[in-house]
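Q: For a teaching session next week I want to show students how multiple molecules come together into a single three-dimensional assembly. I've collected the sequence lines for a complex. Could you give me the predicted structure tokens for the whole thing so I can convert them for display?
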Amino acid sequence: MSTAIFWFRQDLRLQDNPALYAACHAGHDILPIYILDEENCDWPMGGASKVWLHHSLTHLNQKLGGRLQCFSGDAKAILKTLCNTHDIKHIYWNRCYEPWRIKRDSAIKTLCTEQNIACYSDNASLLWEPWQVSKQDGTAYKVFTPYYKKGCLYAEAPRKPLPAPKHLNLADLSPKNALTIDALSLCPTRSWGEEIITDWKIGEDHAHAKLSDFMDGGLTNYKDGRNFPNKANVSRLSPHLHFGEISPNQAWYAAAQASAPEQDVTCFKSELGWREFSYYLLYHFPELPHKNFQDKFDAFPWHDDQEYLSAWQKGQTGYPIIDAAMRELYQTGYMHNRPRMIVGSFLVKNLLYPWQAGEKWFWDCLFDADLASNSASWQWVAGSGADAAPYFRIFNPITQSEKFDPDGQYIKKYVPELKHVPASLIHKPWDMTISEQRMYNAVIGKDYPAPIIDVKETRERALAAYSSIKQVQD
DNA sequence: TGAAATGTTGGGGCG
DNA sequence: ACGCCCCAACATTTC
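A: Of course. Below is the structure for the complete assembly, covering every listed component.
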């Protein structure tokens, strides 16, 4: 029986894993490996992502009977050594789409071809491959709706989920330089790493439990309820999807078969569509993570003065909805989508920071930090992206708070200083009289910060900044 | 997947 | 009864 390497990457699961399925089906004994490759990587994983990865690998390793072999370093060198030492002629993996990984993986394929090693790659992460969707003229879509409706929905239906391989025969090999998961040093000694995971159950089995709970509950009324950060109408699957503990195909078909109203199902599927669109944009515009998609934004007068950045990061801006959201992010490794848009607008438009500053902070703090989604979404918020929110669409954090957290429950959950403040006053606590502030144990400037900026003034400043670039040719 | 400014309409108070 | 004003409530436009 020949041995094949199965290289786990962003597909930390056994079910619906096409390359793993193919390897087993071909009759190979499998040597399952994971490589932490920070040598080829120009976007090293953030702190939260590493913590998640640690636990996800642990879960996967348990499912593999403790036989997962971990390595750290240059993937090309590690694979070469493994193949040479153990006389392995087959490597299987599922594709990744980050520019650095595409570059690295194609170099590995070239090397393998030279060495007479067969490489098999498949698609485990996307419903539609980015190169299979294009306009009539062959160029890439830049607008979501036609991309999704004409490009995706008219194309072949996504692959139906595969079962786990029937026979997973693990090779009886113990490579010399293999490391334990602990030795990858993914978990900081800081207590932060311990605390942020308390809300989460990590790994393939828990991802499925969450999907199934969502299908039975939150999907009904998803279309409207998903806007309310204190409602259970979002799936919170994003970190599981990012690490491939569950596939978009599994989510897609689960929704399609769910008994929820059609508009909710359609809306959920289109959110998976936005994820696809982000990957599509990153594939066709590999500079998306650092360069304005719209060139005219290169001349935008950002204020990169660091003055307010740390107040935003720590949730000390004096705007309760912003502070609740930023603290949710830091404390739980996650932020609901609605407040992501609100805090994004606040950073980029009210504070005039370049979107890259927000991208970087989210990258470090989010469990679901994903190069494609994070870059595409920050550019969307900033107005510089593909099919972006127009720059002049500036969120008012007070209005948004009143609309989407009317009873202030989300605010109170993460901003305990305001827990005694009644809902009618919680969205703009600085309007409380001194006696109200004392009565509710929330003295502004003492118990809770005064607003660091005025939204009306900064809105006008942002519009003026925008008008300075709108004449510039694209 | 906004918000604010501006425009329009229609009911009620009032002389 | 009528015109006038006020001003919600809604619609449209602008950024």
